[in-house]
Structures are given as structure tokens and as C-alpha cells.
Amino acid sequence: MPHTITEKIFSAHLVDEPFPDVKVLRLDAVFCHEITTPVAIADLEWRGKDRVFDPTRIKAVIDHVTPAKDTKTAIQGKMLRDWARRHGIADFFDVGYNGVCHALFPEKGFVRPGYTVIMGDSHTCTYGAFAAFAAGVGTTDLEVGILKGVCAFRQPRSLRLDIVGVLPFGVFAKDVALEMIRRLTVSGARDMVIEFHGPAISAFDMEERMTLCNMAIEAGATCGICQPDEKTADYLRPFIRDEFPTARHALEAWAKWRSDPDAMYEARLALDISNLEPLSTVGYKPDEVKPVRLLTEVKVDQVYIGGCTNGRLSDLRAAAHILKGRRLATGTRGIVSPATPKVFKAAMEDGTLRIFMDAGFCVTNPTCGACLGMSNGVLAPGEVCAATTNRNFYGRMGEGGMVHLMSPVSAAAAGVAGHICDPREMM
Amino acid sequence: MSEFGGPVLFLDRSDINTDEIIPAKYLVEIKKEALKPHLLEDLKLPGFSPASPAGRQAKVIVTRRNFGCGSSREHAVWVLEVNGIRAVIAESFARIFRGNMFNCGLLAIELPAAEIDAIFALADRPAACAVDLAKKQLLFTCEGREIRRTAFALNAFDEALVRAGGWVEFADQRY
Fold first, then answer.
1. Which DSSP helix (H) or strand (E) runs through A290?
2. What is the pLDDT of residues A118-160, one digit of tens each?
3. Which of residues 351-390 of A touch B (CB under 8 A)?
4. How far is A190 from B96, CA to CA, in rounded Å?
5. Of all helices (H) and strands (E), which one includes residue A152?
6. Bridge partners (DSSP) listed for residue A93
7. In whole angstroms, what is the distance from residue A98 CA to residue A108 CA?
8. Taking CA atoms, what residue in B is nearest to A18?
9. Which CATH architecture fits B4-174?
10. 10 Å Cβ neighbour count for A235?
């Protein structure tokens, strides 16, 4: 019988089916950050079960508020730090080594094709770019994952999204993600895995695939998932060299994590990106999307470039291409947060950060910070931000603020113009 | 009064998200009780005020589609729990929120759109809802008089979680 990649991963990891349609899966990786993990740690301590199933399969990072901004966030960091130490979790990333989880963990090679991954964070779906089943979960699921190395799922249905065409000039993976959400709506892929196919996906590099998979949750999806290919193998090369002498060996081993051609899907959707334009969200839901050229009336108080959607090196370089030789408009401030120390260093060494600073941007350390209005760039009521992040909910970046989600290039152009504009005119 | 039930708060909108249920700035709290005053703080809905008696006394929420979309934060469930809201009735829920409810031993009850419409027709009066878990029945009353009776379904796993008191208890016994 033909199967989807998700069905294959589920079968290979099945531990128990306690009830019909409930699959308890063995986990290859449990990722933790300082916001959703401390309550799980405290509960395990309270239950007298302060244990971890396997310290090598647990990775932890302080990323949401870092360095700590006050006593409460310092305590959250300390709880995660102390817990990692006492359980011998070697892959714990503290201040100086930390970055936005969904950019940092892939960069470390922690996600491989065929893996099952959970994290107490909804954008865990990002890791589907590596042909892994990766799902955001709450603290209770995380707690059981830490203790037992398992998680229960209803067998997700798969939605096959075929993306065809070539990205037009000035249009990026983020625009494809926004168009996908516009088409599906915020609940269109609820309880489903979005399985990406098509020549456009094959042409995307791993960073672009991560951007796209990252926003699958905004359409309600459990995970966004890509098939493993040469690009997956090339990206993971430094980490799999001992296991696979060449990329071909890796691809042969990963062939079992490809959907069969005649697999069954709950739904199918085709997206032709040939005529796509640069897009932006307009309201408080990520499916409220319009071309940026129609939004030139929208003045921008702040530009934010960073986050798990678009804080990687290719994103910063693309924005710098707009900013080179230009400055932020008077009355518009800019913040750039390279998503990891590696991105920060590379952007420093190749001159990208210099371009940002010359344009008037503030460069912050890697952190989730402003994306969810916790630190490093919270908006005042009535303020407007052009952001490369993934959520524009009311109050997301600060009470009474408005967030317009767009590509790094569109955000940089909005900063230069002082209002949302078509970035193609500056390219 | 059943274990799950009490005054009903009607939230007549789809896609109410986790940031509206509990804003991210409160995620720095380690104690669930500290979330209590901030229930639905950022929800802007005509006629709704989180500080109103209807908001404060509610023990059951009735709402539309895709409730709890957005973040994975279980704080969105805990802020309901510490306010005594142990059941949410909706046409549908976002996956993570729904899982979090049952994982905490709370009820996320899904009903067909027509039934949700019929329940919203009761919203002009102060309504209460009693949840009979054994009979899988919701009993809506107004000033003690029955105004509607609705059957609901729970899958076996979700019911087992509610009876066990949550996923940690269930998993700990089994794995």
C-alpha cells in the first residue's frame, strides 16, 4: 500500500495505539526553551519524577528573553540551566551561544530526515524542511516527552501542496508562505500535515524551505514537510559525514522517507508562483494578505528583521541588498536580530551588519524578543511595525501595536521609504 | 452542579487565538495562579469585557471555530483552569490547544455548526451549562429552568485523559 512520508514516519516510530486513531510515537528529539519548559520541570520535581528519558536526545536553549530582562525571566533561564546541568544535557545553549531555537537547532544538525521531534513551541513545524515530523506541543506533552520519550498524536491527514513556477524578481519564500496562508486561511490545514512538492520546492534552498515550513502552523497545520533531496544532504553534510560517505549514500538511506507517488491525500492544492507579488498581512490574522503595492498609505514606525521565519543569513543579506547606500526614513527605526551567533558572525564578517548599521539599524543579539512582544523592540499602542516574523495577532508585538508580516526585502524597503512600499522599485 | 459546568460565557467569533486568551508578556510566570487576572485580556469583541461579571464568573465558554489557534502555550489552558473554566464548547479547536485541554484533564467539546448556532441563540439570557460526562450530555439552564439539552461525543482517548486527570498520569502508568 502506498504511503505518505508522514505515514511512514508514524509507522516507524509507533510505540502504542491505546485507542483507535491514537498513535503514541517514540521521539528522536525533544527540544526545550525557557518559556514553556520550566513549568514542566517544576511539575516533574513536584511529582518526584525529576528525570529525563535520554539526555542526548534533549536539546535546550534560552532564546525567548535573553539576556534576562528582569527577575522573572532570570529565574526561567536559571531553571532551564540548572535542569540541563543536573541531567547532563550537553546540548544546552546559554547566553553567548544561544539563538532562536528554530534557526539554531537545524544549524547544529540536530534534525534529520525521518525524525520525530516535539517542542513546546508552535513553530516547531519549521523542522519539516528536513523531512522530519516535527510538532509544536504544550507543556504537558513536553513533560511526558522529557520523562518518557513519547508523544501521542492523532494520525494527521496530509494536504499535498504542489508549488510550481519560478519565483519572480523581488518575491521570496516568505511571500509564498503568505500566499499559502491566504489561500488556506488560518484554519484550512487544521490537524493536517502540509506536504510540499513541486519544482519550486526543489529549487528552494534549506533556508527557504524552513521559512515556508515555519508558517505551516499559521494555516493550522501540525507540520509542514518536504521530501529529502540533495539540498537536505548538502546542508547536513558536516554532521552525517561519518554515517554516509557521500550525499548519494545519504539519499539512498533516506529514500524510505519519501512519499510514494500514488500516496493518498486528504486534500490537494496547486500554487503557481510565477505571477506572485511581494505581499504583506494587513490585519490581526496571518491570512489577511494583500500586495504591498496597495499598502503605500501605511506608515511604519519600526522595522524588525529577525525571528525564526526570516532571521537567517540569506534573509539578512537580502535585506542588506536594499539597505546598501540607503538610510532608514526619518521617524522610522530599525531593529535587526541575527537569529544565531553563527548568523551574527557571518553577517559581521561579510559586511552585512555594517550595511544595517550605516542605514541606522540597531543590531541586537540573537533572541525571539520582539516577535512576541517580550523584549528588544516592543511596540507602543498605536505603533506600526513592518516585520519579518510570523504572527500579527492583536497585541503580539506589544499592546495596541499593529504588525505587518512581510519578506526581509519588503521590510527593509518599508524602512527606507517610511511606509510599506513595493521593494522592486529599490532593487 | 457537575464537576464541569456553571455560568456560560459566549464568545461569538472564530479563530480566537492564544495571544488573546493570554498575552505573551505573562509567559514569564512560573505559577499558574499568577495568570488568573489576565484571562482574555487582549480579546477585543463587541460587548465583551474581560473584567465584566460575565467574564469573571464564567465556568464554561461557548465559542465558534478554531478556538485557541496560534501559540503552543499551555498558559492559555491554565488561565482558564485557574479561573474555574474547565470546559470549552466550540465548533472546532486548534490542534495544540485542544490537546492541551485534555492533557490537563479539561474538556474541549466539539459540536456541529447548527448546534453551536442553536446554543448561541440562548446568549441573550444569563445561561448556565451542566456537563454530564457519564451521559455525554450538556444541560443548559436559565435561572434554574432547562432551556436546551445537547448530546456530545468524546473519543475514548480524550475521555480516558479526563478520567485519569491528564496525560502525565495516563502516560506514567503506561510507559
1. strand A289-291
2. 999 999 999 999 999 999 999 999 999 999 999 999 988 999 9
3. 372-374
4. 10
5. strand A150-154
6. A61
7. 11
8. B157
9. Alpha-Beta Barrel (3.20)
10. 20
Domain ranges for chain A: 5-270, 281-426
Contact status, residue A265 vs residue A158, Cβ threshold 8 Å: yes
- The SS3 call for residue B132 is strand
Closest Cα in chain B, distance from residue A85 (Å)? 20
φ/ψ (deg, to 5) at B125: -115, 160
Strands of the sheet containing A157-164, edge to edge, are: A223-225, A192-197, A157-164, A267-272
pLDDT band at A393 (very low <50, low <70, confident <90, very high): very high
Tens-digit pLDDT profile for residues B37-92? 999 999 999 989 888 887 889 999 999 999 999 999 999 999 999 999 999 999 99
Q: Per the structure block, which three cell numbers stand in for A419? A: 511606509
Residues, chain A, total?
Answer: 427
Domains A5-270 and A281-426 in one fold: yes
- Alpha carbon B153 to its chain centroid, in Å, reads 16
A184, A176 in Cβ contact below 8 A? Answer: no
Residues contacting residue A270 through CB under 8 Å, at least 6 positions apart: A161, A162, A163, A164, A198
Pairwise CB contact (< 8 Å): A187 & B166: no
List C-alpha distances in Å: A411 to A296, A313, B96: 12, 15, 30
Rounded to 5 degrees, φ, ψ at A281 are: -80, 155
CB B23 within 8 Å of CB B42: yes
Q: pLDDT digits over A83-99, tens only? A: 999 999 999 999 999 99
Looking at domain A5-270, its CATH architecture is 2-Layer Sandwich (3.30)
CA distance A282 to A206: 28
The β-bridge relationship of strands B128-132 and B4-11 is antiparallel
Only one residue has cell 532564546, namely A63
Domain extents in chain B:
4-174
- Please give the order of strands across the beta sheet that includes B128-132: B107-110, B87-90, B60-63, B4-11, B128-132, B137-142, B145-151
Q: Taking a contact as any Cβ pair under 8 Å apart, which residues of chain B between 14 and 73 contact chain A?
A: 14-15, 17, 19-20, 23-25, 27-30, 32, 42, 44, 65-66, 69-73
Place domain A281-426 in its CATH homologous superfamily. Aconitase, domain 3 (3.30.499.10)
Alpha helices in A131-261, H assignment, sequence order:
139-148, 173-184, 199-203, 206-214, 230-240, 247-254
Set of chain B residues whose Cβ sits within 8 Å of the Cβ of A381: none
